[in-house]
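Lecture 7, part B: from sequences to assemblies.

Below are the input chains for today's worked example.
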Amino acid sequence: MIQICEVGPRDGIQNEKKILTTEQKVELISKLIDAGIKKFEAVSFVNPKVVPQMADAEEVMKLVPKVNGVTYAGLVLSRSGLERALETSVDALHVVTATSDEFNLKNSRRTVNQAVEELTKVAEEGVAAGKKVAAVLATAFGCPFEGNVPVERVIKAAEAFLQAGATELTLADTTGMANPAQVADVVKTFKNHFGDLDLGLHFHNTRGLGLANALAGYQAGVTRFDSSIAGLGGCPFAPKAVGNVCTEDMVHMFEQMGLETGTDLDKLIETALWMEEQMGRTLDGMMMKAGEA
Amino acid sequence: MIQICEVGPRDGIQNEKKILTTEQKVELISKLIDAGIKKFEAVSFVNPKVVPQMADAEEVMKLVPKVNGVTYAGLVLSRSGLERALETSVDALHVVTATSDEFNLKNSRRTVNQAVEELTKVAEEGVAAGKKVAAVLATAFGCPFEGNVPVERVIKAAEAFLQAGATELTLADTTGMANPAQVADVVKTFKNHFGDLDLGLHFHNTRGLGLANALAGYQAGVTRFDSSIAGLGGCPFAPKAVGNVCTEDMVHMFEQMGLETGTDLDKLIETALWMEEQMGRTLDGMMMKAGEA
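Predicted structure of the full complex, as structure tokens:
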């Protein structure tokens, strides 16, 4: 069974210039629930001046359907984000830091060590407040400014968050630098180091390798993947880059391989096409264009 | 070492409405040779009324650079195509049939058996004339009209061509229906059945799985892949579908995995961007947009 965390409502749209209404965001989530999605990174508690698309996080969380078995995570980058998140009904906190200093300095004006220090406290407080905490380690497969990111550095950050009470770890290929051989290596190293860790993978399709990397991750034993409906998403530091791995394309791959995802591909494609109408431009997903085989 | 057969000049452009000049086609091939490509499916000897883009096959073959170590193949679908091919300097004949009747009837007005009967004779004559012959078995991973194509049927056609003197076999996923698990299975079945066969794979990225399928093929032991610069290509029977696996994206994947392709990625990307100018529209390749990591 493949577990999908839909990040379209957060990573997918956060850099889109067209600001969606709260109602559109809630409708997107509702449609995805109807298509079988059980887990969302639904909102981000970041500075609304920096990321205006995420400014209505509290409103979104008030209006999303509360459905048994569906969990909502909110992204948290700081203590003030935590305070906002704890005022909402999010089930989980996704605390995020890059694992390369240069990227992290640009993204949140801190070194990795500074971020880990602040965010492990955030994680502890989140756990104390009854929230599930997942650590998301960005640039884990490479940094657009520093290049290679040693796996030891990623492990060190992971250890700190697990010690602080995080129960999930997601390795993110923020700017699409991973390759399948590297994914297999990194997953193997993490499995050897951490044993039975709940490990997830978050890929971007920037260089066309999103699905190949997800395949390599699955072959290495990972069954939890982030993805974004219609392939929405992008990175502010890679302006020509495209988005996250596309949810319905990944579902198609795994289902064709005989693996269950618990989702309805037709409904996912319908939602992707609906999303294309909302955004008013052609989106990256392939299944929404080619249709099922 | 990964061996790439560049099919951009044939499969890539054959369905493009914008007819390229002979000079543009030759310039494309020259640029690709400069980027390290050693093998081309350069032309197609089909009815120019049906595929006007390929009408100048003889002219193209007259003008392409004759470079040591570079081989040119011409696609042949019939006896009349063979006769044309033998008047040119092509090194190899790619004889092509689909492995599903309904597709083959639409594509060349013959059943698979009828095509195999005619084309094995073509293969024999080609070999007798001193040409290398490769058999390309289309719809080998599924047919858009018939669905599943039993692997036994593909093996039967392969046997006939090998007996007729073909020394290469390429399995083609003509409309992008393959998935990585199936690719692994089919390759394994072929390797078990044929032993040391020179087996290549030809994927389309119609449903986003081109590179994941190439990865699965490589993992199963295949090292020869067709691809098309900038991801050009498409299928007349799948109008919304996109093209072949993109050469520079596949090169990037394999090179990042530490595998040699003998090509220069920068020059491939430059050629893809040049091709975009010639076609006058945005092409599908990802590396040409994102750049190297």
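Note for the exam: Residues 112-128 of chain B form the longest helix (17 residues). Keep this in mind when comparing with the next example.
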